[in-house]
Amino acid sequence: MTSLSLVYALQSISVAVAAATPYQVMVIDRYNDASIEWSKAQVTQMGGGQADPRQLFGYLSIGEAEDYRPYWQSSWFTKPPAWLGPENPQWKGNYAVKFWDLTWQTQVKGYLDGIMAQGFDGVFFDVVDVYQRGWVQQQGRANPAQDMVDLVKAMSDYAKSLNPDFQVYVNNAEELLANTTYLNAIDGVLKESLYYTGGQKNSASDVAWSTRYLDMAKASGRNVSVIDYVSDPAKIADVRAQATADGYGYYTSNLELRGINLTGFSTTPQGSLVPNVWYDLL
């Protein structure tokens, strides 16, 4: 089984371009670049809703708080709440959280409510792998990985209780796919940098470690897509060839996930959906 392609673009989104793009699954931010919520009409125009065979997902960081979101309070810069952790040095404005904390989970649920109210077909949980970070490991939790499983399941159960057709996708943390509870709570997974890291080809052993888990998800009927941050045409072609051979949806982009630029697509549609699209945003 070949998985659906997943387009991942968080900045410089045009409603008209998104509406005209023959994607299968696309993840966008629930806010435009001016930090204004997309209206329900705009979400529908871009492909959200059951009337459109495409699936449009809203982005939600489940493992980090972001100081540019409406829930952020300015007082947190000087008096952070107990559940707020250190800033991510690679992504300014993003802070690790004690994701098992009920106050943080209330924030997540409220953000999820907004995504559902806007008419998105699903949610894309990012920073699921925060449980691997040293700071989290130092918080005295017996099993941080299980804490993340519990959170994803709780949010999935909540969303699907309101809309059984609502989809839940996750980013990375592929080792959790071996957990049956986790696997049953999700509908798809995106793996970043499967074949290349920093423009360099990953070792066969590293790729095999990840694909072992990704194949578990694929065998269970979950959608599996990969994204690699490469710009060289030969590397893009290599990603396309490897992902196709592995039966994964594929996508190439810049690290900022800026814009949508259709450069080509395969000629074989997946099921009743639009053709499997190959994008390069560079």
- Overall tally of structural domains: 1
| Spatial strand order of the main sheet | 1-2-3-7-8-9-12-13
What gross morphology would you assign? globular
CATH superfamily: Aldolase class I
Order of helices and strands: EHEHEEEEHEHHEHEEEHEHEEE
CATH class: Alpha Beta
Most strands sheet: 8 strands, parallel
CATH topology: TIM Barrel
Low-confidence stretches: 264-282
Structural class: alpha/beta
Number of helices: 8
Structural commentary:
- By secondary structure, this protein is α/β, with parallel strands linked by helices.
- The protein has a single domain, classed as Aldolase class I (TIM Barrel), CATH 3.20.20.
- 31% of the residues lie in helices and 24% in strands.
- It has an eight-stranded parallel sheet, with helices on one face.
- Helix 3 packs parallel to helix 5.
- The protein is globular, with a radius of gyration of 18 Å.
- The two termini are 29 Å apart.
- Residues 264-282 have low confidence and may be disordered.
Task: Please describe the structure with a list of short key phrases separated by commas or semicolons.
282 residues, alpha/beta, TIM Barrel, three-stranded antiparallel sheet, globular, disordered C terminus, Aldolase_TIM
